[in-house]
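Sample pair:
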Amino acid sequence: MVEKTETRGWWPSVLDPLRQAGERVAEWVAPRSEAATDADSYEITLELPGVSIDDIDITVHDGAMIVKGEKRAERTEEGKTWFFTEREYGAFQRSFRLPADADQNRIDAAFKDGVLTLKIKKHGEAIPTGRKIAISKD
Protein backbone atom coordinates (compact mmCIF):
# COMPACT_ATOMS: atom_id res chain seq x y z
CA MET A 1 0.00 0.00 0.00
CA VAL A 2 1.39 3.40 -1.02
CA GLU A 3 0.93 6.26 1.45
CA LYS A 4 -0.47 9.49 0.16
CA THR A 5 1.98 12.40 0.45
CA GLU A 6 1.14 16.00 1.33
CA THR A 7 0.16 18.33 -1.47
CA ARG A 8 3.49 20.10 -1.00
CA GLY A 9 5.28 16.95 -2.11
CA TRP A 10 8.85 16.24 -1.07
CA TRP A 11 9.90 19.86 -0.27
CA PRO A 12 9.09 19.82 3.46
CA SER A 13 11.19 16.72 4.06
CA VAL A 14 14.15 18.22 2.19
CA LEU A 15 13.95 21.56 4.03
CA ASP A 16 13.39 20.15 7.53
CA PRO A 17 17.10 19.65 8.31
CA LEU A 18 17.84 23.25 7.28
CA ARG A 19 14.96 24.56 9.38
CA GLN A 20 16.11 22.53 12.38
CA ALA A 21 19.70 23.75 11.93
CA GLY A 22 18.44 27.36 11.92
CA GLU A 23 16.54 26.76 15.16
CA ARG A 24 19.67 25.26 16.77
CA VAL A 25 21.81 28.27 15.74
CA ALA A 26 19.21 30.66 17.21
CA GLU A 27 19.21 28.69 20.48
CA TRP A 28 23.02 28.72 20.60
CA VAL A 29 23.29 32.50 20.11
CA ALA A 30 20.38 33.44 22.41
CA PRO A 31 21.33 34.18 26.02
CA ARG A 32 20.37 31.60 28.64
CA SER A 33 17.46 32.60 30.85
CA GLU A 34 15.29 31.58 33.79
CA ALA A 35 11.72 32.52 34.68
CA ALA A 36 10.04 32.34 38.07
CA THR A 37 6.98 33.72 39.83
CA ASP A 38 5.75 34.56 43.29
CA ALA A 39 2.47 36.00 44.57
CA ASP A 40 3.17 39.56 43.34
CA SER A 41 5.36 39.34 40.25
CA TYR A 42 7.16 37.40 37.54
CA GLU A 43 10.94 37.42 37.33
CA ILE A 44 13.06 36.69 34.27
CA THR A 45 16.86 36.61 34.42
CA LEU A 46 19.18 36.49 31.42
CA GLU A 47 22.90 35.74 31.40
CA LEU A 48 24.67 38.50 29.43
CA PRO A 49 28.37 38.23 30.29
CA GLY A 50 30.53 40.76 28.49
CA VAL A 51 27.55 42.82 27.30
CA SER A 52 27.49 46.53 28.10
CA ILE A 53 24.33 47.96 29.66
CA ASP A 54 24.31 50.49 26.80
CA ASP A 55 23.99 47.63 24.28
CA ILE A 56 20.77 46.22 25.80
CA ASP A 57 17.29 47.24 24.59
CA ILE A 58 14.06 46.06 26.27
CA THR A 59 10.64 46.68 24.70
CA VAL A 60 7.07 45.48 25.27
CA HIS A 61 4.75 45.05 22.32
CA ASP A 62 1.48 43.13 21.88
CA GLY A 63 1.84 41.14 25.10
CA ALA A 64 5.47 40.17 24.50
CA MET A 65 8.66 41.49 26.07
CA ILE A 66 11.63 41.58 23.69
CA VAL A 67 15.22 41.80 24.90
CA LYS A 68 17.76 42.73 22.20
CA GLY A 69 21.44 43.43 22.48
CA GLU A 70 24.90 42.92 21.17
CA LYS A 71 28.14 41.58 22.58
CA ARG A 72 30.91 43.45 20.86
CA ALA A 73 34.37 42.11 20.16
CA GLU A 74 36.99 44.49 21.55
CA ARG A 75 40.29 42.79 21.00
CA THR A 76 43.39 43.73 19.08
CA GLU A 77 44.83 41.30 16.58
CA GLU A 78 48.29 42.91 16.34
CA GLY A 79 51.22 40.76 17.38
CA LYS A 80 49.12 37.72 18.25
CA THR A 81 48.69 34.39 16.56
CA TRP A 82 45.29 32.96 17.45
CA PHE A 83 45.04 29.19 17.87
CA PHE A 84 41.33 29.14 18.73
CA THR A 85 38.55 31.26 20.19
CA GLU A 86 35.46 29.98 21.98
CA ARG A 87 34.01 33.35 22.87
CA GLU A 88 30.77 34.42 21.17
CA TYR A 89 30.12 37.89 19.76
CA GLY A 90 27.23 39.44 17.90
CA ALA A 91 23.62 40.49 18.16
CA PHE A 92 21.03 38.53 20.13
CA GLN A 93 17.30 38.67 20.77
CA ARG A 94 14.94 36.87 23.15
CA SER A 95 11.17 37.23 23.21
CA PHE A 96 8.98 36.33 26.19
CA ARG A 97 5.18 36.09 25.94
CA LEU A 98 3.75 37.78 29.04
CA PRO A 99 0.93 36.08 30.99
CA ALA A 100 -2.53 37.71 31.01
CA ASP A 101 -2.12 38.94 34.59
CA ALA A 102 1.26 40.64 33.95
CA ASP A 103 1.17 44.44 34.22
CA GLN A 104 3.04 45.60 31.11
CA ASN A 105 3.34 49.11 32.60
CA ARG A 106 5.15 47.95 35.74
CA ILE A 107 8.38 46.29 34.62
CA ASP A 108 11.67 46.95 36.40
CA ALA A 109 15.06 46.02 34.96
CA ALA A 110 18.38 45.71 36.81
CA PHE A 111 21.80 44.72 35.45
CA LYS A 112 24.57 43.43 37.72
CA ASP A 113 27.58 41.17 37.16
CA GLY A 114 26.48 40.25 33.63
CA VAL A 115 22.96 39.21 34.68
CA LEU A 116 19.85 41.12 33.57
CA THR A 117 16.91 40.77 35.98
CA LEU A 118 13.43 41.76 34.85
CA LYS A 119 10.58 41.99 37.39
CA ILE A 120 7.06 42.20 35.99
CA LYS A 121 4.35 43.06 38.52
CA LYS A 122 1.05 41.18 38.43
CA HIS A 123 -2.42 42.71 38.24
CA GLY A 124 -4.74 41.84 41.12
CA GLU A 125 -6.47 39.37 38.83
CA ALA A 126 -6.15 38.25 35.25
CA ILE A 127 -7.59 40.68 32.74
CA PRO A 128 -9.84 38.84 30.32
CA THR A 129 -8.58 38.88 26.75
CA GLY A 130 -11.98 38.22 25.23
CA ARG A 131 -15.66 38.28 25.99
CA LYS A 132 -18.74 36.27 25.13
CA ILE A 133 -21.13 37.79 22.62
CA ALA A 134 -24.83 37.23 23.33
CA ILE A 135 -26.98 36.16 20.41
CA SER A 136 -30.43 37.73 20.18
CA LYS A 137 -33.48 36.07 18.60
CA ASP A 138 -35.08 37.97 15.70
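The chain has one helix and seven strands.
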